[in-house]
Amino acid sequence: MALRVSCQSCEIREVLLSNKPIELIDLSPKATVPVLQFATGHVLEQSLEIMCWALEQNDPFGWFNPERGTFGDMLDLIKGADGDFKYNLDHYKYSGRYENVDPLFYRTEGEKFLKLLSERLDQYNYLFGTKPSLADYAIVPFIRQFANTDRPWFDALLYRSLHKWLNNLISSEPFNAIMVKYPVWQAGDDPIIFSSDILY
Ligand SMILES: N[C@@H](CCC(=O)N[C@@H](CS)C(=O)NCC(=O)O)C(=O)O
Fold first, then answer.
1. How far does residue 32's CA lie from ligand 1's centre (Å)?
2. Model pTM?
């Protein structure tokens, strides 16, 4: 989404996480997505790094400049999402990958972060004011994954502001524009270009 709003183009290689290509592992041994490689060979292997790089090139909607709080405050909240919340999400959603894990324990742990977000969102529609910022777009994919793990459970929560926020972001232009299914990449394929030459 950051690549799109900042109008960056790149070759996109869709991978199956259940069958990671060796080229991905060679580039980034931790082999999570996304990974961005520059023509120089330099690699960014954290989504936040990729977002920040893209927005440093061009930040037409001011994602770096929240209405409320500071850039550092946004990074702190993102750290909570990338750290404890992501850990709880993985142990809830993929409990079968770990030994002796009770997914409901991790769901309850993860819910604490949902509550924290919802309390912020009771004040403003977005995490740092009345318009979306870096924090909203960095955090929403993990909240969506958490919600979709058991949608009826998530929908029954009383966090109305959080539900509204999630719906607003997943109906936003950058989200819908990037949720396109690409064919899975194989060595030798013609490049598929992710192009976001939108004129604002
Ligand atoms: N801290 C990483 C986390 C990335 C991550 O966990 N991505 C998931 C997909 S949303 C993944 O690649 N999972 C594959 C795996 O864990 O093997 C980032 O923000 O880029």
1. 4
2. 0.94
